[in-house]
Description:
Elements: H1 2-12, H2 19-26, H3 30-39, E1 46-50, E2 53-57, H4 60-69, H5 80-91
Amino acid sequence: MHFSIYICSIATEMTTYSTRQAAKKLGIADASLVRYIKAGKIPKPKSATSGGMTIHFWTEEDIEELRKLLPHIANGRKTRHKKKQSMKKSTRKPKS
């Protein structure tokens, strides 16, 4: 009986991070992390809603899984290099 109580206490003592803390560990803005969640680009972590605010609880495992996913997320922004390339393609004259 005491063993099951011990396991439950270990599970509840797991370190969790806020969205801001998780974003900082990942090296991205917390607004980006929230935007990725809302767009469905990343899986939602465990969360709780209080007073109309949703609080996400990120574990180390969640953060590491997200670290693997981030390079594959299209964020919709073009780099300066990509903008130059797309402008060159649009100004080319068709060959006759």
